Structures are given as structure tokens and as C-alpha cells.
Records
---
Amino acid sequence: MAIMAETRLMTLQPDGKLLKGARPSMDEEFLLDALRWMLLSRLYDEKVIGLQRQGRFGVYSPGLGQEASIVGSSMALDPERDWIVPQYRELMAIVRHGYPLEKITATYMGKTTEATRIPEGVNVLPTQVALAAQLPQAVGLAWGLKLQGKDAVVMAYIGDGGSSEGDFHEALNLAGVQKVPIVFFMQNNQWAISTPRSLQSATPSFSLRAAGYGFPGVEVDGNDIFAVYQAAVEAVRRARAGDGPTLIESVTYRMGFHNTTDNPSRYEDKEQRADFERRDPIDRVVRYLRSLGLLDEQREDNLRAEVSAEVDRVIEAAAAEPGVRPDGMFDNVYERPPARVLKQREQFRGSNGNA
Amino acid sequence: MAMPERNVVEAINNALTEEMERDPRVMLLGLDVGRLGGVFRTTSGLIEKYGASRVVDTPLAEASIIGASLGLAVSGMVPVAEIQFLGFTAQAFHQIGPQLGKYRHRSRGRYHAQVTIRAPFGGGIRSPEFHSDAVEAQFVQSPGIKVVMPSNPYDAKGMLLEAIRDPDPVLFCEPDRLYRLYRMEVPDGDYTVPFGKAVVAREGKDVTLVAWSAAVELCQRAAAKLAEEDIEASIVDLRTLVPLDVETLVNAVAATGRCVIVHEAPLSAGFGAEVAATLAEEAFYDLDAPIARVASWDIPFPPASMEHWYLPSVDRVVEAAKRTAAA
Ligand SMILES: Cc1ncc(C[n+]2csc(CCOP(=O)(O)OP(=O)(O)O)c2C)c(N)n1
Ligand SMILES: [Mg+2]
């Protein structure tokens, strides 16, 4: 018995040419905006990895190589009414959705305070370290928004690794039963730390799993911004129309490392990596725009310089954010803390000479 | 007009009904809570009154019941989730302690989780495996979660209303052995029992019994038996483990100088250990005898036909109280 994999949605070929008969899902201005976001993602990653090496930045999981996936998915959302429930490797998605990059940067620089939290009115939930735990929560959020008659869609992110968790199954199952307005966006970047995709599941395509929950699944070339955006727009449209969830598998590659403590040379397959290098999501867009005469070398250099300056400005602003108070760790545990906890805070203040 | 009398099931049902009537954001979700009205009938009649979108029979998956409740709360709903038996919180443990409990903290106050988890528990009703496990202490190690353990119908209603209105997550453990044991006066209409206020359920000068949930009822029977032998036991009903009312506990133990802690959970690292440690810190010089604990044995909950040998009994409490009173 053969299990059929879905066909993979692709529009823009690695050489920057449109697939025969395919039409771009973004107009030129929108594409230039997308390119700007992708460059911000890449240049930011490169810069903060450097900062991390100098001990000025926390453990960090870059989105290198996944920029089309991260940016293209989030651009299908309306930050005013839609919600993002992240895992952790979608930084620019939540930034585009309204969480200021300098606040996130400050947090990575140790400034975990109320001033750097997700601001009021920004429809983003905290990043999730416990893999897949965000998914049932995202389903509840979408369910509650639907019950209250709000015109809102939730986009929940998950990795290929996280999709093996029980919470993944429970969440997709419940989402199907309640037909909630949600898009499950899986970044299949081929790795869960050192565990390859082939050891994560025997399914030929993660997108096939959606059938088991009673809603559509689509597989897209995650390094093709047009394809990612097109699939996301369609899934958001379905959710908004009351047609329920969609699972999108975005096939991409983690060009960096798992995080700043990881060394992929111990386990990575060089050929696979080289193959994806040729399919770089940013190069592809640049080639396409070149072929249309919309981006000459000068303009590209200017764009890179602009984005790079923005990254510097963000890091400077983050460095200027006030630091933590030691007893701040007692804040925001309860609205009305138990007497015992208040007593412990007094004890801590006494021992720590903290006001 | 005589005040209505209710058992624990009726008190809980009454609290849920009144709160769903008062606050349209309140919704119930869990296994069999709708059409069946819950395996113990605590939610009986509610789906008929409030419909299937506010009283939801969920898929059989505990982690998603709790995880979805968190998301529902963030969206602006006030979910009351039922885990059919406390033992099956294991399947949802991560969504309870680490997720619900920490959500306010993890989001640095941007979000909070106004979620109540109701869960029946405890032995003495000959339930199948896993159904009776008294795992309340596991959640005491999850900061952010309140752990509340009513011991009678009046408290069950007042504490459930308090739980639903609490902006933070509350684990509300229901003593299934007491569900239909007796009725007492439980008023119609609104009242709450505040958390962090233990109560002296019986006055006595010779020894102080400390308990919560169904073990309070056990202590009442033990105290009656002790009285026949001229030993007057007081009983402290802690009512909530988090927050813990240290003051009432310490005062009641200091008054007799003798303390026996009684709980249904296995002895080692049960919440009784926390009570004993607190008394050692705060009441050491008022103690006239070593603190004693009567608990279940440190073994798995046995098959129903043997549960009476496993659970703390009147005889074991009486024996420990006599020994402590005489020491
Ligand atoms: C429940 C859980 N188990 C283990 C870990 C440790 N861990 C962190 S990231 C990771 C791999 C995740 O892979 P994937 O979901 O594919 O996301 P990616 O890092 O590739 O973006 C692991 C095992 C964790 N954070 N949570
Ligand atoms: Mg991965």
C-alpha cells in the first residue's frame, strides 16, 4: 500500500524564475516589504550571534534559512485582530505582529521586566519552550475568540520535532472537533536539535496528518515566500470564514544551529545542507526582483545598510533598557500573593540588601 | 423559611448554576460533563440550561482540556474544567503546574489564567485503579496554583465560587467519599469562603488533629471515639493547602501542645510533611510531644477490596492521638 504525499506547493524556483504558469501571490511593493523583513531576520540573527559569543546575549535559536517561512506566514495575518502563538524560532513573525524588537532584544540581554514584556494590545502570546504545550492553549484561544463572536484568526507555530508530542495530537484533534479559527504552521526545518526529520515520523509528509483530524493539510516549499504566503492566506481565509483549522507544513532548512550552544558539524549531512543552500529563500527573491529590474545592486546594498543600521539601533535601545530588580522575581506570580510568599520576599530582601 | 439542605454534589451543582447565571463568561468543559451531567452528576442539568457551547463534552484528552482552558481564559472566557478523577491530572500535569501555574509569571503579568480545575478524588468508594489517588501535594510544588480542599457542603459551594472568581488558577479537589454522605445547611444565593483561612472544626484541649478534605470527616469520627475515653481532640480543617493559614494552624497546635496530622495521601512527602515542618519552625517550644502523622502507606493504592487497610482509619487516628496525648 502506498501512502501518497501531498504535492508540494511551489511558485518561485530557486533560480528566481516563476514556475511555468505560476503567478506570484504578492505584488511588488508587498514583496519588497517581505524582503526587508527577511533581511532584518537574517542580519539580526548574524549580529546577535556575535553578541552571544561576547557574553552579551542569552541562548538564542536563529531563524537562519527559514526567513521565507517565518515572514511569509506572518504576513498573512492582520495584527489588529489576529493572534500569534509562537514556539520560539519565529522571531520576526511576532515582531511584525507588533512586539517591538528592542523589547525582545532587551529580554535576551537579561532585562526580563514588565517594561520589556509583550505590550498591551499586541496579540502575541509568550514564546514557548515546552514543545507543543502552546498548541492546546492556541486552540483554547481560538475557541474563546469564536465563542465571543470575534473576527480573529490564531496562527500557532510548531516544529517538526514538537509535532511528535502528545499535546500536538490533542490540540489538532480538539481544534477539528470544535472547528476553531486556527492555522497550525509547522516549520519542518529537518532537525530537532540533532534528531533528523526521518526519526521524527514515518509519514511521508507531516501535512498528511491533518486528514486524521478532519481538516486540510498542505505542504509548501518553505523557502519560497510566494508559496508560503499563498498557503497562509488561504488557510487564514478558511479560518475567518468559519471553515476551521488548516495544517501547513513548511519544508525548510535550519541553516544555522539549534541554538548558540549547539554544534551541527557533529551530525549534519553536508549534501543535504548544500542542497538547501542552493535554495536560499532570500537569494531567490533577490534573483526574482533582479530579473524584473526592481532591485539593482545599489538598491540592494542600500536596503542591507538600512536594515543593518536598524539592528544596531535596536541593540543600542535594548542595552539602555533598565535592568532587573532582584525581588522582581516575586512579581506576577499571583494577583494576591499568599502570606507565605510575601514573607519569603521580605526574607529575601533582608538577605539581599534589596529595597 | 428553612434554609435549604444540600450534600456536596448538590452544593457544587448549585454553585455552578448560580455562577453561570451570574457571569456569561463562565463555561464548563471536561469528560461527560454535558449530556451525562458528570460521572458523579455534579454538572447535572447544566447543559439543558446553558447549552452545548457553554457546557462542553470534550474529546478524551486531559492535557488539551487544561491547555485549552488556559487559552480560553486568555481570550476572555472563565473556564471551569473538570478532570474526571484527580489521578488523571497526570496526563495533564504539564499543562497544570508548569503552564497554568506559571503563565502570569512567564508573561510578566501581561496575561493571567482565570481557570478552575475541579477534580474528584479520594478512597473509600471502591473506585477502580488510579481513580482514588490523593496527589494534591504534587500541585503544592507548582507555584502559581492554589490548592483547595473543601471538607463539607457549605465550604464546597463557597470555595467553588471563590475559585471561579479568583483571577489565578485554582485546583479544586472534591472529596468523592463525602459527595452524598450527608446534607447540611447550604444557603441559596451568593457567598464565598475565602482562601487561606483554616477553621477549627472542633474544640478540644488535649490534642489537635490537623486534616483537610474527607480526612476532616474521619477526624470527627475519631474525635467522638476519643471523647468516650475522656480525650478531647480539637480539629483544624486547613481548607486550602495553598495558601496555607499558618497562624490558625500554629495557634491551634500551641493550645494543646500536641498534634496528629491525618491525610489520605501516602506518608512520605505528603502535605503532612509540610505541616510538620512548619510546626517545627513556628511552634517548636509549644510542643509537649512529638508530632504524629497518620496517612496512607507508601505503596500504590490497592485494589478496592483492600482499600480500608490502606487508608487512614478511625482506629489508627485514635491510636495515634492517644499515644500523642499520653507522651
Ligand atoms: C517538551 C520538551 N522536550 C525537550 C525540549 C528540549 N528541546 C528544545 S528545542 C528541541 C528541538 C525542537 O525541535 P523542533 O520542534 O523541530 O523545533 P526547531 O528547534 O527545529 O525549530 C528540544 C528537544 C523542550 N524544550 N521541550
Ligand atoms: Mg525542527
---
Amino acid sequence: MTQVERHTYDVVVIGAGGAGLRAAIEARQRGLRTAVVCKSLFGKAHTVMAEGGVAASMGNVNSNDNWQVHFRDTMRGGKFLNNWRMAELHAREAPDRVWELETYGALFDRTKDGRISQRNFGGHEYPRLAHVGDRTGLELIRTLQQKIVSLQQEDHKETGDYEAKIKVFQECTVTDLLKDGDRIAGAFGYWRESGRFILFEAPAVVLATGGIGKSFKVTSNSWEYTGDGHALALRAGATLINMEFIQFHPTGMVWPPSVKGILVTEGVRGDGGVLRNSDGKRFMFDYIPEVFKDKYADNEEEADRWYTDPDNNRRTPDLLPRDEVARAINSEVKAGRGSPHGGVFLDISSRMPAEEIRRRLPSMHHQFKELADVDITAEPMEVGPTCHYVMGGVEVDPDTAAAKVPGLFAAGEVAGGMHGSNRLGGNSLSDLLVFGRRAGMGAADYVDSLAERPAVAQSDVDAAAEKAVRPFDPQGDGVEENPYTLHSELQQSMNDLVGIIRKADEIRQALEKIEEIKSRVPNIAVEGHRQFNPGWHLAIDLYNMILVSECVAKAALLREESRGGHTRDDHPSMNATWRNKLLVCSTDGTDVSVVEQPQIPMRQELFELFEIGELEKYYTDEELAAHPGRNA
Amino acid sequence: MGYKAQFRVWRGDDESGELRDYVIEVNEGEVVLDIIHRLQATQAPDLAVRWNCKAGKCGSCSAEINGKPRLMCMTRMSTFTEDEVITVTPMRTFPVVRDLVTDVSFNYTKAREVQSFTPPPDLKPGEYRMQQVDVERSQEFRKCIECFLCQNTCHVIRDHEENKEAFSGPRFLMRVAELEMHPLDTADRRDAAQDEHGLGYCNITKCCTEVCPEHIKITDNALIPMKERVAGRRYDPVVWLGNKLFRRSSKKS
Ligand SMILES: Cc1cc2nc3c(=O)[nH]c(=O)nc-3n(C[C@H](O)[C@H](O)[C@H](O)COP(=O)(O)OP(=O)(O)OC[C@H]3O[C@@H](n4cnc5c(N)ncnc54)[C@H](O)[C@@H]3O)c2cc1C
Ligand code: SF4
Ligand code: SF4
Ligand code: FES
């Protein structure tokens, strides 16, 4: 029998980013004993890196804003493939979630009349992003962290124990979900520090593990983003949707090589920065797609007027949705009009005084100064696309965040549907708050409704433990493999073959590579012992990255059109017959299978929020028959 | 462009350890953390190190480089000469877990002891009104990425384990100041700063400010003003009297 440390909770939240912490707060406020588990230290999750802001239609800067406008922008940004119910809940509830943060102690930047200031961002019709300079994610995570502390202080007052109702298990990695029949019964993992095993017995698990970017070579994501939650859900029998849609952020750093991929916030463009090619030309005017022609300025004069007079001018195409901008940059570089290190120029220095740049974009100023020796108040930045965000994730019920497996919930980047084929900037932080809370409620309702608690089987615990230590004693009969080498081969292949521009034969090559890597996995061997051993940790994460990469590649091969974060060179246009089709991934344990599933049609009153003229660009004639514009 | 650098990295756990020498490739534009990662990938796969963002935003990769407390991801190799030996050791003030990873739980314990934000009870979400100039003071302190380099540096606890009980360190004294200066916080935190968090131990040497990667003026903007507020409260007879009266009347009701 395996030696494991055992804990019993009502709800186990895996992940301590915005989504996980908000879920934990909700579950604890509903009176449930809640554990939060995370791979890094408390307060270091990926959310800390978000820069630009959190989108919520509070209307503080432009009072024309409201949830309907936000909803429309979100659907447009996602090219109408979004789960419309999620997009609706998100747009309706985001303002309350942001205001709530102020009651926890958050200090957003202010408008003149003392309310929360809001900034412009790509794809958002009005200034909508609540922000704190360019460190909004830090504010969000610290605020939620401090709210958890305040709840712990309440519990301490009552019971003498800070951790009576909510405890954070930091630097602890979950490797398997355990079930009792078809229901969730717990989670198994290890302490990173000691390598000792830990078991959580709990009827409800909330996945809030973030994204998958570490499967790609050039990425803005940290080591944590190995798709653990995606893989845990799959292996537990849940389904993933939209895995072909990956957001390549248009502006990552391109030089020096060691920081390639690190993000340059869209806030630079939101605040007036413009993209130029090697001729100094603002090339984005050449890349405005047909569907966006009436929203974006086609000349520099109008674009520049828009910053101060948005009611009478169309916005600058520098702020087109991210997929459009990323593709445009890609084309400019391919055409030989790129910058010296293979990107394009992002110019803010010629657009506003140095003092103002330092005030508005302090961390960008700092980042370029320290990492690239570039003073952004005096010279342009060099930028290029970087793998940033996965739209795909666990298929969930919009209202409760419940996955297909009873007792399993998912929120934040690990959940799929909300953003359709492309996420708008700022819509993730708000997503975390809205659906983090809903997942906490969903889990609480589920636990309350249970007649008896599920039980964990010892044999499942033993199997999970055996799998975890396998890299110390490889079972394969080939040459020993180094996990770092396998990882970098996977990253290179995904980057080159299933990256920003895709082709059927290249995706097939990537799938062959994945099969080859899979066959080498049993030979992975790690040195040393179980205490804080990064080689061993990577070996375990690699199982997840491979599984998730297979989902991405298989779905990408099937979708024969280009939409949002999925661009097929061999099928370059959007195809209305693909709009309402979701690709659903599941696994039998070794291989991934992908099937088509129709999307539920949008509720009529939401459908009518759009003009028929706009919908015609996305929908089939058949689907539009019920629209009043068509009937008229 | 590329060259071979000499690194000495501390390897070991809470019981024993040693500085181990490595010769390792360095390329243009790299930072110390890149080199540590290359060591992991090529020569020392079990070398323990914390990191997340690689962009100075998460405060995970704190260590001492040639004796100076720094973030590894923000320390460029170009700041050293090619023949310099670069020594990387864990933060000294906290117990070592393994290699460059230390046990920073002291900081989480101290964080939990600071009374949380206490808004006016009748103020509803969405009704908060604050001017930018008034939030800016606390916003500066909220730039803190909790790298704990200031905690590591402050001499009150660096070589004085015995002071850890009574002293919260610059990071959390600054947290008290942040809440004290929050325009809508209703709690009076001056006594706690002195009595529970040990503000009196700080003799304003500014060593904490010097190492802060966020360039927060911890001493000038948080600690000294906090000391002034405490002094004002303790010695100002009017405040003292008002306090007495307030306490008495609140007892009655
Ligand atoms: C540089 C950058 C800038 C961004 N800027 C913005 C922005 O301005 N606005 C916006 O809306 N969005 C932005 N985003 C996107 C947004 O930050 C992320 O999508 C979001 O923070 C994800 O939050 P999350 O709660 O889902 O997960 P995260 O914050 O990533 O947290 C994941 C958590 O899960 C834990 N975890 C993962 N696997 C395991 C496991 N196996 N066991 C235990 N724990 C595990 C991790 O340790 C971590 O605590 C940005 C992203 C990046 C990279
Ligand atoms: S100023 Fe105070 S807190 Fe900062 S290092 Fe000196 S004694 Fe410590
Ligand atoms: S105040 Fe500065 S040095 Fe101290 S923990 Fe915060 S960021 Fe680090
Ligand atoms: S890795 Fe985040 S601060 Fe260095």
C-alpha cells in the first residue's frame, strides 16, 4: 500500500489563479470546507502576469456601454462560435464582479469623478477595461489572495484556526482525479518540495488550472501551463471543445532570444501605440477584413481622431481582434518588410511624451529597459506573434460550470466555450471572476444535494502512485530519454506545424511526431530523488502536454476553414456551415478521438441584438430564417 | 557572441550543502535564470529553482547573485564580465528547502497577521468613489510582487532569527501602511504597526528599498510616514484624549 497523506474536504479547487481563488471564496462563503491546490507559491499563478485589464461594461468612461454591447463584441470577437449563454452571463455579471473586488480592497485607476477608470482594448467598442496601470493581473490576484486571508481571519476568530474552513496547499501538483463509479471522489498528487504523495477525498473538484502554452516553443506562458487540467478532465471521462482555437497574441517580444515570446500588452496600442513595418508604414490599414469594414478607420487621420473623439470616428485597425493583427504581422514579415529580428515595429515613442509613457505603461517601460536594453520612450519596440491563450477547454454547463463527469467543475482558461474561436483582451480576467464564482456555487449546490459521499478506492491510489514514480524506473525497452529533450521536440513541432498558420499535411506530420514521442515516453528516465526535482516534475507534466497537443492537432486537422485562432492555409476562408459545429475531444486512455457536435442555437432575444446584415457574414441562410430582419 | 561562463551554484538542503562549480554556455541577451535553466537541461537535471513569469512580474526567482539579493530573471548576463565567476546562492534569511529554493512560509504567516481591508459597513459595491491622487500612495505599495527580497535583506531579521517573532519585515509593515493610507479603510492601524508588527525595530537604513525590484520607496513612502503617524498618536495629547473619550463612549453604547 502506498504511503499517502490524506485530507478530506467538501470542495477541492485545483488552481490558485483568478478563477480558482474566486471559486474557493464562493465555496467557503457557502459554508463548505475548501482546499485550494496550486503548483507554485500562493499568489504567483499565471493571472499575476495579466497586464491590460478586466473587461466590464460599467460605462464609467462612455455611458453608452452596457452588457448587450459587451455581449455583441464578445460574440463578434469569437466569430459567433462562442457558447452564447456563457457570453451572456459573462457580459451581464462582469460589472458586479469588478465592483465586488473594490470591497475586497482592490485599488483600480480612477476617472475624474472618482469611479473606476476604463481603457480601450482590441475588439471592445467602448473603453471597457478596468485596470491598474499595466499590472491589472497582479492587483486581481493579490486582492483575491487578501480576501482569502480575510476569510481565514474570520475563521480564526471563530475557531482559533486560520485553516479551519479554507486551506491553501501550495507547491503541490495534482496528477490524477479519482472516481467512485462515474462520480468524482477525490484528487491525487505530490508535494513538489518533498515528493511525498497527497490524497484529497472530496465529492467535488473545481479545475482552474489555466492553459496549455508550454506545448509551444514561442509563448507568453510560464512553466505551469502544461494543460494539466485539460488532461485531468479528459482522463476522468470529461470532454474538451474548441481545442483547435489557440490565440497567438500579435505582440510578443522577439529579441533577445531568451525572452522571445514574453508579452507586450495590448494596452500599448489601446493607449495610442501603432504598428509599423520596415518602411515605417502603418500597415494595418491594408488588413481590415470585409466583416469589420464599417467599424475600423481606413486612413490615419480618422484613426488618430478616434482616440479623442470615438463617437464620430471609426477606431484604428491597430486594435482589430488579435487573430487579425497576428496574421497581418505574419504576412508583413513573410513579405520581407519585418524588423531586424523578425518582427515588426510597435511605436509609442513618437506618439506621446516620455513622461506619459512612463506613467501609463510603467511595467512595459521597465521590461524593455531591463530585458532588451530598449527605451520605449525613445525608440520603437520589436514585436511578433506569441502563443498566448487557449480558447478550447473543458465542455461545461454555462450556469453551473459543471463538466460531463458528476462532481467535476471547470472555470477560467481551462474551460471552453466562452470565447468561441478567439478571445478579446480583457475578457479573460472577467471570465475568471464570473465563472470562478459560478463554479464555486455549482460545486456547493452539488455537494449539498448529495445523499452520501463517494469513496476513494485504495487500488486507484496505488495505481496513481505507481504511474507518478515510473520515470525513476523506466519500463520501456529503448534508450533512456531525457524529459527536457522530449519536451523541446514537442514544442518545436507544435510551433512549426500546428502554429499560427496551418496546413493539412503539416498537421499530419505533427501527429506523426506526437505518436513518435508517445512511443518514447516509457523510456523517460530521471535522475536524483523525489525532493524538489524539476526533471521529474517535467516528466509528469509531459504526459499532459502530449495528450493535449494531440487534441489540438486532431481538431485542427478536422476543421477545414479559417476562423479566429485557427488559420488553415489550405482553407483560407470562414465557412458558415462550420460555424455551429463544435469539435469534441475525448480519450480512451491512450488515444484521442474527436467528433462533431452541433451548437445550440442562440436564444431569440439575443439573436435579435444583431443586425441581419452582420449575421449574414457568419450564418447560413437557413439559420437566419427566424431573424426579424429576414422576415421584414 | 556566445561564451563559456563560470558559475558557482549552491547545492544542498537544510542539513548540508556546498558551492558547486559549473562551466556553461551563455548567449547574447541572456539572464541568470536562462543559465540556471540551461544547467538543468544539460548538467544538473535535479537543480531546484523557483520561477514563473521570467519577466519580473511574479517574484518567484529571488536569490543572491554574487551576494546581492536579486531576481534571477531580471539579472542580465551582460552586467558581468566574461571571466567573472558568478555565484548564485539561496536567500539567506529563510531556511533552505533545496538548492536555490527556500522556505518562505514566514512571509505568509506575517501576511495573515495584518488586519484585512475594513471598508465602511454601509458602502455598497459600485458606490466606491476615490480620487486618483488619493489612491496613488497605496497603489505604489500594491506594485509589490512579493519577491521577499526586502524581507531577506533587512538586518533586523537577516542575522537575527530571534526577531522574527516580533517583526513583520518591510513588506508587511508596508502592507499596514498601504491599508492605513487606503482612502476608504476605516481601521486605525497605528497601535498594531508598533505593537504587533514591530515597526519600532526598523531604524530606517533603507536597505530594503535598495533591493526592491519594483523600485518601491519602502522606507521613505511607507515606513517613515507610518512611524510619523504612530508618533503622532502616541505623543499628541489631543489624540490621546480623543481616544479615551471615544473608547469610553463606545463602551457605554
Ligand atoms: C502575459 C499575459 C498577459 C495577459 N493579460 C491579460 C489581460 O490583460 N486581460 C485578460 O483578461 N487576460 C490576460 N491574460 C490571460 C489571463 O491572464 C489568463 O487567461 C488567466 O489569468 C488564467 O487564469 P486562471 O485562473 O484560469 O489560471 P491561472 O492564473 O493560470 O492559474 C492556474 C493555477 O492552476 C494551478 N495548477 C495548474 N496545474 C495544476 C496541477 N496539476 N496541480 C495543482 N495546481 C495546478 C497553477 O499552479 C495555478 O495556480 C494574459 C496572459 C498572459 C500570459
Ligand atoms: S529601512 Fe527598516 S525595514 Fe528597511 S531594511 Fe532598514 S530596518 Fe529593515
Ligand atoms: S516590497 Fe519590493 S522587495 Fe519587498 S517583497 Fe515587495 S517587491 Fe519584493
Ligand atoms: S520568474 Fe517571475 S519574477 Fe522572476
